[in-house]
Amino acid sequence: MNASPIGFSRSFLRYLLMLLTFVGAVCGTALAQTKATSAPAQRSAAPAQKTVVRQSKVKIRAITAFVNLDRTQYQIQITDAMKMLKRARTIFESRGFPVETIRIATQPFPEYIEGLSREQALQFFKNYDALAVDQGFSASIGPAMLKATDSPAQADLLAEILKNTKALYASLVVAGDDGVRWPAVGAAARVMKQLEDTEHSQGNFRFAAIAMVKPLTPFFPAAYHNGFGHQFAVALESASVVADAFQDAPDLATARRRLMDSLSQEAFAIESEAGRVDSDTGWAYVGMDLSPAPLKDVSIGAAIENLTTQPIGSSGTLTAAATITAALRDIRVKQTGYSGLMLPILEDSRLAQRWSEGRLSLDALLSYSAVCGTGLDTVPLPGDISAEQLSLIIGDMASLAVKWHKPLSARLFPVQGKGAGDVTELDSDSLVNATIQPLGKP
What we know:
Layout: H1 10-27, E1 59-67, H2 74-94, E2 99-106, H3 118-135, E3 138-144, H4 153-163, E4 168-176, E5 179-180, H5 182-196, E6 207-211, E7 229-237, H6 239-246, H7 252-281, E8 284-289, H8 300-308, H9 317-329, H10 349-356, H11 362-369, E9 375-382, H12 387-404, E10 408-415
Parallel strand pairs: 1-2, 2-3, 3-4, 4-6, 7-8, 9-10
Antiparallel strand pairs: 1-7, 4-5, 6-10
Helix pairs in contact: 1-9, 2-7, 4-5, 5-12, 6-7, 6-8, 7-9
């Protein structure tokens, strides 16, 4: 395999070794929910004048409200949350930050359906789903099996809930400070197999096995909270900023500095407006997830290839991952969630292409996760994969999360009726199609 053509001087190679050592140490610690170094600036009165709204290259993937749901008055709670979310969207978009989605996440769903029969619980979630579709928000109902002692019956109910709804997302906790929870790993695999039996097997888009993921991440399906709620967080869609920063960068130091400078400017502006939402609505702002999420042709895979000038999956990819995540950690805004490198195969056109070409594999994706990636995301798999094989994949992800004490997740797509060499037939606006690779492909 040819070496990456990035021109390195000897001094730069010494810098690279220092960088990777530093990043490895940083990524081995728990993600800090860092407080901003300064409060949003106070606005002073200015003479009335025509305002030209700049258009940022950063989009807001999601504004996520965290609600402590009470099933006896949830319609009132949702109305209140939607009032805040719509106000937030107006504020951000008036400042040139397009908002892709507004979302609501709750505490773990078993807490607010306690006392209901299975049929009553399913009906409640059908009603909640209908409300979400009608009001135009996506809803995370939180994790099943949050505690190691929780019953696997929660997972069985969750599979039924997701199969019978359209706008609900959820997760299942497979590892925590107590280590990998193997019964939960098996339960998550069974949920994935059950969701395979949905239209185009797309039910698994709304489910993930999560490990060491703390509350208050704004990204779905992992989003949940375990407090009083009445909070909100922001998730970014900024792969295009990474692509611009890496284009024609002469070396890694320049690429990292460009990325940090560009994204810092946007993040500070977003945080200032989030402070305004906080003040205007009384909903507490808890931070942003800086993960540069892609969306189809707004590709993080293409951004990485701008730096390495090699197809993603080749030598240099791991170094690029380290460069991105080191830059994210140095941006001094209040952070929450993953704030790492997301490589969702079926949400990124270039990643889907490289997966189809066999340049990316499960093992490669896990290795990038060790350098502050976020796990295995929207990975297409043969439909005949067994629950036991899925458990092994989920278990690898969970073991890595526990080892490095970092948030990871697995959102796997076994596709019914498809095998190695077949192309998926997904019809979601959020997804692209890819060729399924054989299990165990090196």
